Structure prediction request, 176 residues.
Amino acid sequence: MSAVARDAAGNQGQATDVLINIDNTPISADIIIDNEDTEAIENAGWLMATGASNNYGVNSRYALVAGAINTYTFTPNIQIAGQYEVFAWNSCFTPRNTAVPHRIVHSAGATTVFINQDETSGICAVWESLGTFSFNVGAAGYVEISDTGLSSGSYIGADAVRFTISQDQVFGDGFE
Prediction:
């Protein structure tokens, strides 16, 4: 988050990052959940992606699409209800599936976004936006990466998910 200061004459100073505290509770603009964090839960079938590069954090995971559904769920603890842009970080590896479902469960329901995770034709090593959604306070919302509906024999990955609160949510529309 950044703020711009103005003096009494209206001259604008340099933008600077600010940290917000409400009731002595630190609030961050970003909630980042890595695959190794306790807020990230995998079901059976996920392996360490030793051949992947550009992991977020120390490592990433992968699963082979073959029968049983593989899911990796990232659940934030939302401190301020409101609009959050949700992002996924995919490590780089090929071959991976080109239409991996990322299901975002939010206060208005659920939305599924399909992400091309293949290193040669898709997106990797960047925060890929999944969209902006409303979330309530608590841990009811989440992002689930799965192989639901995918053809057997392909691979999917799970690395990290980021929830970024809208600046307007914290400061209101008039804040510059």
Observations:
- Confidence is low (pLDDT under 50) at residues 1-5, 13-19.
